[in-house]
Amino acid sequence: MGEVSEKSPINVKPAVTKASAKRVGGFPSIFYQAFAVYGLVDYLDNGNVVARLYNADASTSERNFTAAELTDGSTYTTWLDGANTAVTRVAKLYNQLGDSDLDLSHPSASSRPNYEASENTLRFDQAGYFAYTNLYTLSSDSGDRVSAAFGGNSTSNDTTIVLGARKKDSSLYGLPASGRTLFALRDGFSPTYAYNAYHKALSIKQASYSDDIGITVRDDDGEFVTAFHDVFDHSTLKTYIGEVFRQPVPGVTSTDMNLFVNTTQEVDTNTTDLGNDIDLATILLGDNRYVMKGAMLFNKILTSDEKSELHNRMAEDY
Asked: What does pTM read for this prediction?
Protein backbone atom coordinates (compact mmCIF):
# COMPACT_ATOMS: atom_id res chain seq x y z
CA MET A 1 0.00 0.00 0.00
CA GLY A 2 1.06 3.60 -0.44
CA GLU A 3 2.36 2.98 -3.96
CA VAL A 4 1.21 5.54 -6.49
CA SER A 5 -0.43 4.11 -9.58
CA GLU A 6 -0.18 6.31 -12.66
CA LYS A 7 -2.32 6.23 -15.76
CA SER A 8 -0.80 9.16 -17.53
CA PRO A 9 -3.45 11.63 -18.72
CA ILE A 10 -3.11 13.25 -22.08
CA ASN A 11 -1.52 16.56 -21.16
CA VAL A 12 -1.61 18.23 -24.53
CA LYS A 13 -4.61 20.02 -25.90
CA PRO A 14 -6.46 17.63 -28.22
CA ALA A 15 -6.67 18.56 -31.85
CA VAL A 16 -10.14 19.80 -32.67
CA THR A 17 -11.25 18.18 -35.90
CA LYS A 18 -14.69 18.36 -37.48
CA ALA A 19 -15.40 14.96 -36.00
CA SER A 20 -14.08 15.60 -32.50
CA ALA A 21 -15.75 19.02 -32.22
CA LYS A 22 -19.24 17.64 -32.83
CA ARG A 23 -21.65 15.72 -30.66
CA VAL A 24 -24.31 13.29 -31.81
CA GLY A 25 -26.80 15.20 -33.93
CA GLY A 26 -24.16 17.40 -35.54
CA PHE A 27 -24.11 20.25 -33.02
CA PRO A 28 -20.71 21.88 -32.26
CA SER A 29 -19.47 21.06 -28.78
CA ILE A 30 -19.27 24.19 -26.65
CA PHE A 31 -16.80 22.45 -24.33
CA TYR A 32 -13.99 22.75 -26.87
CA GLN A 33 -14.37 26.53 -26.70
CA ALA A 34 -13.67 26.61 -22.95
CA PHE A 35 -10.51 27.81 -21.21
CA ALA A 36 -10.65 24.84 -18.83
CA VAL A 37 -13.09 21.97 -18.16
CA TYR A 38 -13.25 19.95 -14.93
CA GLY A 39 -15.52 17.26 -13.55
CA LEU A 40 -16.26 13.61 -12.93
CA VAL A 41 -18.08 13.44 -16.28
CA ASP A 42 -16.25 13.07 -19.60
CA TYR A 43 -17.62 16.24 -21.21
CA LEU A 44 -15.38 15.89 -24.27
CA ASP A 45 -16.25 12.21 -24.78
CA ASN A 46 -12.60 11.32 -25.39
CA GLY A 47 -12.10 8.62 -22.73
CA ASN A 48 -9.22 10.39 -20.97
CA VAL A 49 -8.76 10.37 -17.20
CA VAL A 50 -10.84 12.98 -15.38
CA ALA A 51 -9.79 12.63 -11.73
CA ARG A 52 -7.20 11.21 -9.37
CA LEU A 53 -8.59 9.67 -6.17
CA TYR A 54 -6.83 9.16 -2.84
CA ASN A 55 -7.56 6.57 -0.16
CA ALA A 56 -4.72 5.60 2.19
CA ASP A 57 -6.10 2.06 2.67
CA ALA A 58 -6.89 1.21 -0.95
CA SER A 59 -4.81 -1.20 -3.05
CA THR A 60 -2.69 1.82 -4.04
CA SER A 61 -3.03 5.11 -2.18
CA GLU A 62 -3.80 7.05 -5.37
CA ARG A 63 -5.19 6.15 -8.76
CA ASN A 64 -6.30 7.97 -11.90
CA PHE A 65 -9.81 7.25 -13.17
CA THR A 66 -11.66 7.82 -16.39
CA ALA A 67 -15.31 8.82 -16.10
CA ALA A 68 -16.30 5.34 -17.30
CA GLU A 69 -14.18 3.67 -14.61
CA LEU A 70 -15.87 5.73 -11.90
CA THR A 71 -19.29 4.43 -12.87
CA ASP A 72 -18.75 0.93 -14.31
CA GLY A 73 -19.55 -0.69 -10.95
CA SER A 74 -16.26 -2.56 -10.54
CA THR A 75 -13.09 -0.53 -11.19
CA TYR A 76 -13.50 1.75 -8.18
CA THR A 77 -14.52 -1.12 -5.88
CA THR A 78 -11.58 -3.25 -7.01
CA TRP A 79 -9.18 -0.37 -6.31
CA LEU A 80 -10.66 0.11 -2.82
CA ASP A 81 -9.82 -3.52 -2.01
CA GLY A 82 -12.04 -3.40 1.09
CA ALA A 83 -11.06 0.13 2.17
CA ASN A 84 -13.71 2.49 3.53
CA THR A 85 -15.20 4.47 0.63
CA ALA A 86 -16.26 7.23 3.05
CA VAL A 87 -12.65 8.43 3.34
CA THR A 88 -11.88 8.55 -0.39
CA ARG A 89 -10.84 12.04 -1.48
CA VAL A 90 -10.24 13.74 -4.81
CA ALA A 91 -6.52 14.50 -5.11
CA LYS A 92 -6.77 16.09 -8.55
CA LEU A 93 -9.23 17.17 -11.22
CA TYR A 94 -7.64 17.10 -14.65
CA ASN A 95 -8.31 19.89 -17.10
CA GLN A 96 -10.17 17.87 -19.72
CA LEU A 97 -8.86 20.11 -22.51
CA GLY A 98 -5.45 18.60 -21.82
CA ASP A 99 -3.38 21.58 -20.58
CA SER A 100 -1.89 20.22 -17.34
CA ASP A 101 -0.91 23.72 -16.14
CA LEU A 102 -4.60 24.18 -15.39
CA ASP A 103 -5.15 20.93 -13.45
CA LEU A 104 -6.66 21.45 -9.98
CA SER A 105 -5.13 19.72 -6.95
CA HIS A 106 -4.21 20.06 -3.29
CA PRO A 107 -0.98 18.81 -1.69
CA SER A 108 -2.61 18.03 1.67
CA ALA A 109 -4.84 14.94 1.85
CA SER A 110 -6.96 16.36 4.70
CA SER A 111 -7.83 19.46 2.64
CA ARG A 112 -9.03 17.57 -0.44
CA PRO A 113 -12.76 17.20 -1.19
CA ASN A 114 -14.58 13.95 -0.49
CA TYR A 115 -15.56 11.61 -3.32
CA GLU A 116 -19.20 10.50 -3.00
CA ALA A 117 -19.24 7.21 -4.90
CA SER A 118 -22.99 6.63 -4.53
CA GLU A 119 -23.77 9.64 -6.76
CA ASN A 120 -20.37 10.21 -8.39
CA THR A 121 -19.91 13.73 -7.00
CA LEU A 122 -17.33 15.82 -5.14
CA ARG A 123 -18.36 17.01 -1.69
CA PHE A 124 -16.54 20.01 -0.24
CA ASP A 125 -16.79 19.64 3.54
CA GLN A 126 -15.05 21.26 6.46
CA ALA A 127 -11.36 20.52 6.90
CA GLY A 128 -11.17 22.35 10.25
CA TYR A 129 -12.67 25.29 12.11
CA PHE A 130 -14.09 27.57 9.38
CA ALA A 131 -11.80 25.88 6.88
CA TYR A 132 -13.10 23.98 3.87
CA THR A 133 -11.61 21.56 1.39
CA ASN A 134 -10.56 22.89 -2.00
CA LEU A 135 -8.62 22.31 -5.20
CA TYR A 136 -6.60 24.93 -7.07
CA THR A 137 -3.99 25.50 -9.77
CA LEU A 138 -0.44 24.75 -8.63
CA SER A 139 1.61 25.03 -11.82
CA SER A 140 4.19 27.82 -11.94
CA ASP A 141 2.90 28.72 -15.41
CA SER A 142 -0.81 28.80 -14.59
CA GLY A 143 -0.80 32.32 -13.13
CA ASP A 144 0.30 33.97 -16.38
CA ARG A 145 -2.31 31.99 -18.30
CA VAL A 146 -5.14 32.93 -15.92
CA SER A 147 -4.05 36.57 -15.84
CA ALA A 148 -3.89 36.88 -19.63
CA ALA A 149 -7.35 35.37 -20.12
CA PHE A 150 -9.31 36.82 -17.20
CA GLY A 151 -7.26 39.44 -15.34
CA GLY A 152 -8.36 43.04 -15.63
CA ASN A 153 -11.68 44.48 -16.71
CA SER A 154 -11.62 45.11 -20.44
CA THR A 155 -13.45 43.80 -23.49
CA SER A 156 -10.69 41.21 -23.93
CA ASN A 157 -11.32 39.73 -20.45
CA ASP A 158 -14.90 38.50 -20.89
CA THR A 159 -15.47 35.87 -18.20
CA THR A 160 -17.97 33.02 -17.88
CA ILE A 161 -17.84 30.81 -14.77
CA VAL A 162 -19.89 27.59 -14.85
CA LEU A 163 -20.65 25.24 -11.95
CA GLY A 164 -22.88 22.16 -11.88
CA ALA A 165 -23.66 22.03 -8.17
CA ARG A 166 -26.15 21.94 -5.31
CA LYS A 167 -26.26 22.86 -1.65
CA LYS A 168 -25.23 19.90 0.53
CA ASP A 169 -28.73 19.43 2.03
CA SER A 170 -31.62 21.37 3.54
CA SER A 171 -30.37 21.35 7.14
CA LEU A 172 -28.62 24.20 8.92
CA TYR A 173 -25.39 22.22 8.68
CA GLY A 174 -25.90 21.78 4.97
CA LEU A 175 -25.69 25.51 4.35
CA PRO A 176 -22.60 26.80 2.58
CA ALA A 177 -20.46 29.24 4.54
CA SER A 178 -21.62 32.85 4.35
CA GLY A 179 -19.39 35.25 2.45
CA ARG A 180 -17.31 32.61 0.71
CA THR A 181 -16.77 31.66 -2.92
CA LEU A 182 -17.75 28.39 -4.61
CA PHE A 183 -15.70 28.65 -7.81
CA ALA A 184 -13.29 31.55 -8.16
CA LEU A 185 -10.64 33.24 -10.23
CA ARG A 186 -8.55 34.99 -7.59
CA ASP A 187 -5.23 36.71 -7.00
CA GLY A 188 -2.12 34.61 -6.46
CA PHE A 189 -0.63 36.12 -3.33
CA SER A 190 -3.21 37.26 -0.78
CA PRO A 191 -3.34 35.23 2.46
CA THR A 192 -7.09 35.75 2.87
CA TYR A 193 -9.80 33.60 1.28
CA ALA A 194 -11.00 34.54 -2.18
CA TYR A 195 -14.11 36.53 -1.19
CA ASN A 196 -11.88 39.15 0.47
CA ALA A 197 -9.20 39.07 -2.25
CA TYR A 198 -9.21 40.37 -5.81
CA HIS A 199 -11.52 37.97 -7.63
CA LYS A 200 -14.27 37.08 -10.06
CA ALA A 201 -16.39 34.28 -8.64
CA LEU A 202 -19.59 32.40 -8.04
CA SER A 203 -20.17 33.13 -4.36
CA ILE A 204 -22.49 32.85 -1.38
CA LYS A 205 -23.91 36.06 0.07
CA GLN A 206 -22.42 37.37 3.31
CA ALA A 207 -25.37 37.19 5.72
CA SER A 208 -26.58 35.09 8.64
CA TYR A 209 -27.56 31.60 7.47
CA SER A 210 -27.41 32.72 3.85
CA ASP A 211 -27.62 30.40 0.87
CA ASP A 212 -28.10 33.14 -1.73
CA ILE A 213 -25.84 32.36 -4.71
CA GLY A 214 -24.51 34.95 -7.10
CA ILE A 215 -21.68 36.55 -9.01
CA THR A 216 -19.13 38.74 -7.19
CA VAL A 217 -16.12 40.81 -8.27
CA ARG A 218 -13.49 42.70 -6.28
CA ASP A 219 -11.05 44.91 -8.18
CA ASP A 220 -7.54 46.09 -7.29
CA ASP A 221 -8.90 49.31 -5.75
CA GLY A 222 -11.03 47.29 -3.33
CA GLU A 223 -14.32 48.05 -5.05
CA PHE A 224 -16.64 45.09 -4.38
CA VAL A 225 -19.75 44.45 -6.46
CA THR A 226 -22.18 41.61 -5.73
CA ALA A 227 -25.38 40.37 -7.33
CA PHE A 228 -27.31 37.45 -5.84
CA HIS A 229 -30.11 35.02 -6.62
CA ASP A 230 -32.26 34.21 -3.58
CA VAL A 231 -31.60 30.47 -3.24
CA PHE A 232 -28.92 27.85 -3.82
CA ASP A 233 -30.99 24.71 -4.37
CA HIS A 234 -30.29 21.52 -2.37
CA SER A 235 -32.73 19.14 -4.07
CA THR A 236 -30.85 18.66 -7.32
CA LEU A 237 -27.73 19.71 -9.15
CA LYS A 238 -28.23 22.79 -11.30
CA THR A 239 -26.11 24.64 -13.82
CA TYR A 240 -25.01 28.03 -12.48
CA ILE A 241 -23.54 30.31 -15.17
CA GLY A 242 -21.98 33.58 -14.03
CA GLU A 243 -20.87 36.29 -16.46
CA VAL A 244 -18.62 39.34 -16.08
CA PHE A 245 -18.00 41.48 -19.15
CA ARG A 246 -17.05 45.04 -19.92
CA GLN A 247 -19.49 46.97 -22.05
CA PRO A 248 -17.81 48.69 -25.05
CA VAL A 249 -18.89 52.16 -23.96
CA PRO A 250 -16.22 54.81 -24.68
CA GLY A 251 -15.04 56.66 -21.57
CA VAL A 252 -17.20 54.62 -19.16
CA THR A 253 -16.20 51.60 -17.10
CA SER A 254 -19.52 49.81 -17.47
CA THR A 255 -19.50 46.15 -16.44
CA ASP A 256 -22.33 43.62 -16.81
CA MET A 257 -22.66 40.91 -14.13
CA ASN A 258 -25.21 38.17 -14.82
CA LEU A 259 -26.26 34.84 -13.33
CA PHE A 260 -28.21 32.11 -15.10
CA VAL A 261 -29.66 29.11 -13.24
CA ASN A 262 -29.90 26.33 -15.79
CA THR A 263 -30.85 28.59 -18.72
CA THR A 264 -33.00 31.12 -16.83
CA GLN A 265 -31.46 34.50 -16.07
CA GLU A 266 -31.88 35.29 -12.38
CA VAL A 267 -29.42 38.19 -12.00
CA ASP A 268 -28.84 41.13 -14.36
CA THR A 269 -26.64 43.89 -12.91
CA ASN A 270 -24.76 46.70 -14.59
CA THR A 271 -22.16 48.63 -12.60
CA THR A 272 -19.74 51.48 -13.19
CA ASP A 273 -18.03 50.97 -9.81
CA LEU A 274 -15.47 48.42 -11.01
CA GLY A 275 -12.16 49.72 -12.32
CA ASN A 276 -9.90 48.46 -15.09
CA ASP A 277 -7.57 46.36 -12.93
CA ILE A 278 -8.42 43.00 -11.38
CA ASP A 279 -5.32 40.99 -10.47
CA LEU A 280 -6.03 37.28 -11.07
CA ALA A 281 -3.67 34.30 -11.11
CA THR A 282 -5.34 31.26 -9.51
CA ILE A 283 -8.33 29.02 -10.22
CA LEU A 284 -9.92 27.93 -6.93
CA LEU A 285 -12.69 25.36 -6.64
CA GLY A 286 -14.37 24.61 -3.32
CA ASP A 287 -13.42 26.37 -0.07
CA ASN A 288 -17.06 26.07 0.98
CA ARG A 289 -19.68 23.43 1.79
CA TYR A 290 -21.47 22.11 -1.31
CA VAL A 291 -21.71 19.21 -3.78
CA MET A 292 -20.63 19.41 -7.43
CA LYS A 293 -20.13 17.33 -10.56
CA GLY A 294 -18.71 19.68 -13.20
CA ALA A 295 -17.08 23.11 -13.55
CA MET A 296 -15.62 25.13 -16.41
CA LEU A 297 -14.33 28.54 -17.44
CA PHE A 298 -14.77 30.46 -20.68
CA ASN A 299 -12.92 33.59 -21.81
CA LYS A 300 -16.06 34.62 -23.71
CA ILE A 301 -19.76 35.23 -23.14
CA LEU A 302 -21.92 32.36 -24.34
CA THR A 303 -24.86 32.85 -26.65
CA SER A 304 -28.31 31.65 -25.57
CA ASP A 305 -27.93 28.58 -27.78
CA GLU A 306 -24.50 27.84 -26.29
CA LYS A 307 -25.87 28.15 -22.76
CA SER A 308 -28.62 25.70 -23.67
CA GLU A 309 -26.16 23.23 -25.18
CA LEU A 310 -23.91 23.50 -22.13
CA HIS A 311 -26.71 23.00 -19.63
CA ASN A 312 -28.41 20.21 -21.55
CA ARG A 313 -25.19 18.19 -21.67
CA MET A 314 -24.33 18.82 -18.02
CA ALA A 315 -27.88 17.98 -16.93
CA GLU A 316 -27.62 14.52 -18.52
CA ASP A 317 -25.59 13.55 -15.43
CA TYR A 318 -27.53 15.39 -12.70
From this structure: 0.91
